[in-house]
Amino acid sequence: MDNLPSVALFENRGPARRAELEELAPGSSLWAMIDRGAWSALSQEAPGTWSWTRAMATFALAAVVAAIIFFTVYSQVDWVIGLVIAYALLLWRARTANAAYLRRSEA
Predict the structure, then answer these.
(1) DSSP code at position 42
(2) What does the pLDDT read at residue 17?
(3) How do residues 68-86 score in pLDDT, each as one tens digit?
(4) With the CA atoms of 45, 49, 50 and 56 taken in that order, what torsion angle do they form, in degrees rounded to the nearest 10?
(5) How far apart are CA 31 and CA 52, in angstroms?
(6) 3-state secondary structure 75-92
(7) Higher model confidence: residue 82 or residue 16?
(8) If you ran DSSP here, which 8-state letter would residue 50 be given?
(9) For residue range 17-55, what is the model confidence (pLDDT) as tens digits?
């Protein structure tokens, strides 16, 4: 149990987490809210600590759920393509927000 992270992945950290996300993408604009949402949606930890493993695990989980839905409930390929596009946009926004945060923190 010593190798477990200090904060569980799905633990609700409330105001502390909101403060971290506000530091990542400050402001109340739509793009800032999208950036904070993209960061959270890809299961990232504190700003500046990008994890491809977490991002790809989140994407893989979404792909498994999409495959289950596709093969059992709704076999139209259009929504699967839409899901891939949505995740690509999430990935792009999260990486962009992280790069902007790193530039701000270096200055």
Answers:
(1) T
(2) 84
(3) 999 999 899 999 999 999 9
(4) -40
(5) 22
(6) CCHHHHHHHHHHHHHHHH
(7) 82
(8) -
(9) 888 899 999 999 999 999 999 999 888 888 888 999 999
What backbone phi and psi angles, to 5 degrees, belong to 47? -55, 145
| Distance between CA atoms of residues 106 and 67, nearest Å | 42
> What tokens were used for 101?
């945060």
Q: In 3-76, where does DSSP find H-type helix?
A: 15-24, 30-41, 52-72
pTM of the model: 0.76
The two structure tokens encoding residue 36: 């904070």
Instruction: Give CA 67 to chain center in angstroms.
Output: 20
Whether 98 and 48 have beta carbons less than 8 Å apart is answered as yes
- Cα–Cα dist 57/66, whole Å: 14
